[in-house]
């Protein structure tokens, strides 16, 4: 035999005669113990739906923020790659300029050419 929680709070609401008859038929057709049990179950299901809808909204927000973060990460990666390429070009240019202005580099180049 199931154990039922003791409930001490009451919730009242008015219904028409037609609504009461419809609710009573529904309880009988679905095996509800009472109209109160049926109403409690209906409200509980509505609350659960509302809670799950809120969770889905939160998941959608998280998904949207993750996509935004992913887009920003891609843009940052692209910019870092461009900076890296510019640095390589700059270092290459500096090395060429240093060799052009360094007499030892010129002698080394000449010695290397004549040795070949």
Kindly describe this structure.
- There is one protein chain.
- The chain is mostly helical.
- The chain has one domain.
- The protein is about 80% helix and about 0% strand.
- It is built from three helices and no strands.
- It is rod-shaped.
- The model has no long low-confidence stretch (mean pLDDT about 80).
Strand-pairing-aware structural class: mainly alpha
H and E string = HHH
Integer count of domains: 1
Strand content: under 5%
Mean pLDDT: 81
Outline type:
rod-shaped
The percentage helix is over 70%
Number of alpha- plus pi-helical segments: 3
Point out poorly predicted stretches.
none
As a whole number of angstroms, the C-alpha radius of gyration is: 39 Å
- What is the distance, rounded to the nearest whole angstrom, between the alpha carbons of the first and last residues? 103 Å
Say how many strands there are: 0
Major sheet, described briefly? none
Can you describe this structure in just a few lines?
The chain has 116 residues and is mainly alpha-helical. It has one domain.
Attribute tags:
mainly alpha, 0% strand, rod-shaped
Give the SSE map.
Layout: H1 17-30, H2 35-101, H3 103-115
Helix pairs in contact: 2-3
